[in-house]
Amino acid sequence: MHERYTFAMTLAREAGALALERLKELKSGAIEIETKGALDFVTRADRDVENFIRTKITAHFPDDGILGEELAPAQLTSAVKWVIDPIDGTANYIRDLDNWGVSIACVVNGVSEIGVIYDPSRDKLFHARKGTGAFLNGKPLPKRKSLLDTPANLILALGHSRRIPLLIYLDAIRLLDARQIDHRRAGSAAIALTQVAEGKVDGYFEGDLNPWDCLAGLLINEELGISIQHGRAMSQSLQNGPVVIGQPFLQAVLDELSVLLNETIPQEA
Questions:
Q1: Among positive and negative, which fits the CA dihedral 50, 47, 17, 224?
Q2: Alpha carbons 18 and 25: distance in angstroms, whole number
Q3: Most exposed residue of 125, 138, 233, 257, measured as fewest CB within 10 angstroms of its CB?
């Protein structure tokens, strides 16, 4: 796994550099924007970056499977699968808002072993290998160890998918407000999960995410001792599902947020 780990870190930086190049073209009007849905945009940049990532993986590890956002899956019968989002936060990207990034995870026999998220706008590379900790640009990310580390003003990041009822998202906001917990919305699950890892926010809630949006970020946070209430099962199913994570001192709130999902989404074991 070490070879794949170092490869993934280099690949994420290279893919981010390519995305920045395409962003310059986008701002000059050289790239046409296509619409897949009201909240789901895709550009030629997405496909270019995903093709770049896939080509590199295939050249170095030809027997590995690949699951990405834009292009058809490849070799998913392989025990080793790469799960990639070339530009997570596309709606931000096409408006030159800086909350977007490259997300690369590597899953082995249904277990997330590698997670890398590169934030090109800030030149931040978040990375983790299972059992070895989580890092930012090569330096260990600190863990919060007790309730004594609880910040005075709690904040959760939220996301919303139109695949689930809007009421779940609104109920989450109401619940947080009742608990005097503030919320933020990054517009990119990958970037929001790095904010949890850095301690800039204390948790993340979204009722429906694709595995390429979150598997890398979930591993990074798991390595920091963040409670993963929902989301871990995606490494086995490679299907979309809810993500509810947070600092251990938020466990009661995470439980309450999970209740909001119970009628439509079963609890994970």
A1: negative
A2: 11
A3: 138
In this structure, the dihedral spanned by the alpha carbons of residues 195, 26, 116 and 78, taken in order and rounded to 10 degrees, is 140
Report whether 197 contacts 224 (CB < 8 A).
yes
Ranges of beta strands (E only) in 137-211 are 139-140, 155-158, 182-184, 203-209
Q: Which amino acid is at 243?
A: V
Q: H or E element: which one contains 6?
A: helix 2-27
Helix (H) or strand (E) holding 43: strand 40-43
Bridge partners for 144 per DSSP: none
Give the β-pairing of 124-129 and 134-136: antiparallel
How many C-beta atoms surround the C-beta of residue 77 within 10 A?
6
Name residue, tokens 């997300």: 103
CA distance 187 to 167: 18
Report field, pTM of the whole predicted structure over 0.85? yes
Mean pLDDT of the chain: 92
Q: Residue 107 forms beta bridges with which residues?
A: 81, 112
Beta bridge pairs of residue 131: none
Q: Quote the DSSP letter at residue 147.
A: G
pLDDT digits (tens, 9 = 90+) for 98-127: 999 999 999 999 999 999 999 999 999 999
